[in-house]
Amino acid sequence: MQGDSHSSDTDDLFDRPSKSQLKRDATRLQDLGIRLAGLRPKQLDTLDLDDPLLKAIEDHKVLPNSYSARKRHAQYIGKLMRGRDYPTLLAAVEELENPRSTTRPGVAPKALNPTAQACQDLLADADACEGVITRLLESHPRLERQTLRQLTRACFSALKKPDETGVKKSRNKLSHYVSQNLNWP
Asked: Taking the CB of the first residue and of the last residue of the chain, which one, N or C, has fewer CB atoms within 10 A?
């Protein structure tokens, strides 16, 4: 009888995360808090953060250059972030930190120019590519079906190879061809 109650106690012990996992989670939150402190105030305004967390982030920016003070404050920021949706907030911070990003959280993405839109449509799906080519030829008769097929096929085959320069080169060729023939009246 006592053995049965003992085994149910040990099962309860394994239902919760380990101490090491809790420490790893706390460290991830602290690291994200430090990354948040590196953002500009305008960028922080685009995120959905409450006042105590924003105040803690602002305070972190004005702390003296003391390792222990910054570490303590990072722990405090991590504590304030415990109830937050970590993956969503991490994705938003990465988007804000990316200098090549064209979209910002809370801001509608810019519309693509006709050339970029045509190239994106052509490269969106290999199976639907022929339908996109047909639509482009109907609206822009200067384009040639065979050339579009060859350039899109080259892009798709370059995507299968590990070489990044080949992908970039083939996309540039497609974009150049489309832009030269799309913008004519």
From this structure: C
